[in-house]
Amino acid sequence: MAATGGLVEEGLDRELSKQLTVVSYLQVGTPYTCSHTHTSAHTHAHSQNAVKFVEAINKHIPLVVQMLGSKVTTDALEAINFLSKCASFGIPAAVLGVQRSLGLVWSGDPTVRKAVLDVHVQLYLDPDEEVGD
Q1: Under a CB-based contact definition with an 8 Å cutoff, are residues 39 and 47 in contact?
Q2: Does a structural domain hold residue 112?
Q3: Are 74 and 99 contacting, i.e. CB atoms less than 8 angstroms apart?
Q4: Is residue 130 part of a domain?
């Protein structure tokens, strides 16, 4: 079982590395993202902020997954929406959270059921469409 945990950690590290590469690429001022030039210190500060942001997202996804079980409809809906947005960016923990949300199709609340179905259709059947629009 420990070998499986190592594989999961390695996969998460690889995905985090990909996300950080994309964020750092966008922060260096490519012609498509920024019209002014950045100093090295400015770019470094942006990269540090981006790393902190990605780490905060990854740190708090388990809490959001717990919110899927909330009896408050808006909590569950916001958790579904947040996880689907993160999953659309390829964050592995969010993808697992979206998969866990599938059990909510049996929810007594029709709004929650519809949200779960919409997210799964948009992520897995119509991946070119943006989730939540």
Answers
A1: no
A2: yes
A3: no
A4: no
Gyration radius (Cα) of the chain, Å: 17
Do 50 and 73 meet the contact criterion of CB atoms below 8 Å apart?
A: no
**How does pLDDT run across 46-104, given as a tens digit for each residue?**
888 888 888 889 899 999 999 999 999 999 999 999 999 999 888 889 999 999 999 99
Question: What is the C-alpha separation between 128 and 125, in angstroms, rounded?
Answer: 9
In whole angstroms, give the CA distance from residue 17 to residue 23. 10
Say how far apart CA 129 and CA 65 lie, in whole Å: 23
Alpha carbon separation from 72 to 6, 77, 111, 131 (Å, rounded): 36, 9, 12, 22
Query: Is residue 113 assigned to a domain?
Result: yes
Domain hosting 23: range is 2-125
Residue 132 resides in a domain: no
Q: How many domains does the chain have?
A: 1
Confirm if 64 and 79 have CB atoms less than 8 A apart: yes
Q: How far is CA 49 from CA 2, 42, 44, 45, 55, in A?
A: 33, 11, 9, 6, 10
- Which pLDDT score is estimated for 12? 64
